Amino acid sequence: MMPPDRLSVLVVDNDDDDLFLICDYLAGIDTFEIKADTEMNYKKGLKAILQNTHDIYLIDYLLGPHTGIELIRECTKAGINKPFILLTGKGDRQIDIEAANVGAYDYLTKSEINSELLERSLRYSVQRYSSFTAITESEKRYREIFNKSNDIIFVLDKDFRLVNFNPMMNSLLRYTPEELSNQPFRIFFKNPDEAENFIEYIKSGDAKKDIEIVLLTKPGDPKIFLASCSHITTPDGIGQYQGILYDYTNIKKSVAEQLLKEKIETTERLVRSLAHEIRNPLTNINLSLHQLEKDVPEENKGLTDIIKRNSSRINDMIGDLMNLSNPINKKEDEINLHHLLRSVLSIAMDRIKLKGVDVSEKYISKPVYITGDFKKLQMALLNIIINAVEAMEEGKGKLFVETVAGENIVSIKVKDNGTGISTEDLSHLFQPFFTGKKNGIGLGLATSHSFIQAHEGTIEVNSNPGDGATFIVKLKTSQLKNTINN
Description:
Layout lengths: L5 E7 L3 H12 L5 E7 L2 H9 L5 E5 L1 E2 L2 E2 H10 L6 E5 L4 H10 L3 E4 L5 H34 L3 E5 L5 E4 L1 H7 L3 H4 L11 H13 L6 E6 L5 E12 L5 E9 L1 H44 L8 H25 L7 E4 H19 L2 E5 L6 E4 L1 H17 L7 E8 L3 E8 L6 H4 L17 H11 L3 E6 L5 E8 L2 H7 L1
Parallel strand pairs: 1-2, 1-3, 3-6, 6-7, 14-16
Antiparallel strand pairs: 4-5, 8-9, 8-12, 10-11, 11-12, 13-15, 16-17, 17-19, 18-19
C-alpha cells in the first residue's frame, strides 16, 4: 500500500527547541510532501486534534501537568481514530506499553529521531491506518448485511447451540435474544426427527443443497424455511457451523393454495355436470316411488323406506357438491363473530353430546364483527367442529374454541384431543373427495376451505398423529362496526 503524496501533520510539544527540530526533520523528508502545524500545550493541542483536520499527530509525552498518553486517550475517546505517534525524551518500556494500550501507532525517542526514522514511522503508521480503515469498513458492511438481512443468519458451535444470530431470527421466531442465546438449535423444530436429520445434514457438509425445515415460533406457529449450513473455522481454530434460513412459508402456502384452487375448479366443472345428470333421474325415481307407495304391500314398506332414505342421502350429497362448486354471493352482512360461533356450537350440540365431548370456549372480551355471508361461514365452521368431534374418542373428547385478536384480523382456533393427522394427510386435507373416514366423501373440509377463502380468509392446521389437531381460521374484521363498538 503506497503512502499518500501529501500528509498533513500536527506536532504537539511544549518545548520550542524540540518543535523546531521535529519540524526540521519533517522538512527533510522527500518521500511525500508534508504540511506541518504545531501546538505548544495540552489544551490547544486537544482543541486542534478534535477538529480532525490532520492526517497524523506527533505528540510529546510531557505536556506540563498532563501527558501525551492522557491526550491520546481523550482524543480516541472523543472518536478521533487517526494515527498518533508518541515522542519522549528517553526510552521507557512502561511508557511504550501504555502508549500501545491507548492506541498510539508508534513510540519514538527524541534523541534517536532523524528524517529517515521519522519518514519510516509516518509511512508505516499511515499504511497501518489505511489497513485498519479498510478492515473497519469491511466489517461495517458485513455487520450491516448481517443485521439488515431479510433472511435468518446464524452460527452454531460444535454442539449445535446458537452462539450468534441476526435480528431477523428474533423477528421471525418471536424470541428475545436472551431466549435464543446458547440454546440447542434442535429445540426449535416442529418435528424431532426432522431436527436430527438437519443435524446430520450439516455434519455431512453438503452446503450446496438447500433443505426444507419447519420451525416453531415462540407462540407455536409453524414456519417453513429453506436452510443451508456449512462448516467454518474461527481464527482460533474452533469449528462452527454457519447457516442461512430463507422464510418461504407464504410462498409455499400461495403455491399450495393455487394448486388447490385449480383442483377445486376442475372438480366444480365435473360436479355441475354430474349433479345435473344425477338429479334428473333421481327426481323421476322419487316421483315414481310416490305413485307406487299406495300399491306397495305392507310387508314391503321397509323396502320403499330404504329407497327414500338413500334417495334423500344422494340428494344431500348433490347439495354438498353444489355448495362446493357454486360461487359465493358477495354478501356484506355485519356478523357478530361470537354469535356466529355460538350458533355453530348449538347446531353441533347433538353430536357433541352423543360423543360425550367436553366443550370450552374462550372469546375476546369485546364484540368482534366480520363482514360476509352468515350461512356460508356457519357451514364452514360447522364442518371444522364436526370434523374435530368425530376425531375424538367417545367420552374422552375435549374441544376448545378460542378467538384471538390481531391487527385487522381475528383468529378462530378450534382444538381437539383426537387422533391427530399425519404429515402426509395434512397436505391433502382440503382437497375435494379426500377423507380418512369410513363413510365420508371428503367434501366437508373442502367446502370450509372454499367458503373461508371466498371471504378472503385463511385456514391452517397444526397436528401430529396422537396429539390432536388445531384448526386456525383467520378472517378480516369489519373496521367500521368494530370502531363504533370500541
